Amino acid sequence: MKFVIAFCLVTAAIAGPVPDLKPYHPMHRLGLNFESARQTDGFIVGGVQVGSGEAPWQVSLQRSSHFCGGTIIDANWVLTAAHCVSGTSPSQISIRYNSLKHNSGGSVVKASAIYAHEGYSSWTLDNDIALIKVATPFTLGQTNAEKIALPTGGSDVSAGSSITVSGWGYLKEGSGSLPTNLMKVSVNVVDRNECNGYYGDNQITTNMICAGDVQNGGKDSCQGDSGGPVTYNNQVVGAVSWGYGCARPGYPGVYTRVANYRDWIKNKSGL
């Protein structure tokens, strides 16, 4: 394992910024060292291409290239995952928006401030949420540039409900090629107690939402989708957080439950 991490460190140093890993289950820590263990390319597993105007709140977080997703919640604010930005300075991040492509089109603005949740744990991935304030306000009201509503504080998405995840992550676990266009997939919410049964050791907290096809697998977010929007009823109810592999039967994806952080979001942004 030490050899693998060391190899990844060398690879990352040579290759430069590449998409961030959606972390594996905490029992499988390779991938939780985000700077050193990034791999390249791919997109949403089992999804379809996003059409113009279907996800105007989606943004790409970039260093020299895409590494995580995010969600426009206001002209000045992006919601993402803490593991995407923890330990990162605002000067290192740009945000591309108003484009279905992560590498062209739309507009690019700089970050001016980053707020990762103070209770974020890189081991358990609890409180995996962050806010980015942009230096130049987004120009909203365009076909592919619009904010999305936040959920009511403490609300939950019931088991069996279909949620939509979007991003530019892997096509399949561990390999693939970077897609030209934004992708999306719909997956069903899995009961939290049931999800804990799959992952064990009470890894799934009330701050998380599980979703996926437990029986068959085949549909999921993956590496490179981290921090991106999880939507339900025109609200951003989640942010892509972690999972054991991608689209494996018996291991649904795990997403940050945004409704549990409404007070925190208001405290940081005023929203």
Brief summary of the model shown:
This is Sui m 3. The protein is α+β, with helices and mostly antiparallel strands and 271 residues long. Helices cover 13% and strands 27% of the residues.
Q: What's the number of domains?
A: 1
- Radius of gyration, rounded? 17 Å
In this structure, how is the largest beta sheet organized?
A: 6 strands, antiparallel, barrel
The 3D shape can be described as: globular
- What is the number of helical segments per DSSP (H or I, 4+ residues)? 4
- Portion in strands: 25-35%
Write a structural description.
The chain has helices at about 1-15, 80-85, 190-200, 260-270, and strands at about 50, 60, 65-75, 75-80, 95, 105-115, 130-135, 160-165, 185-190, 210, 230, 235-240, 255. The chain is α+β, with helices and mostly antiparallel strands and about 270 residues long. It has one domain: Trypsin-like serine proteases (Thrombin, subunit H, Beta Barrel), CATH 2.40.10.10. A six-stranded antiparallel barrel has the order 8-9-10-13-12-11. Strands 2-3-4-7-6-5 form a six-stranded antiparallel beta barrel. Strand 2 and strand 3 form a beta hairpin. It is globular and about 45 Å long. The N and C termini lie far apart (about 45 Å). GO terms for molecular function: serine-type endopeptidase activity. Belongs to the peptidase S1 family. Keywords: Disulfide bond, Hydrolase, Protease, Serine protease, Signal, Zymogen.
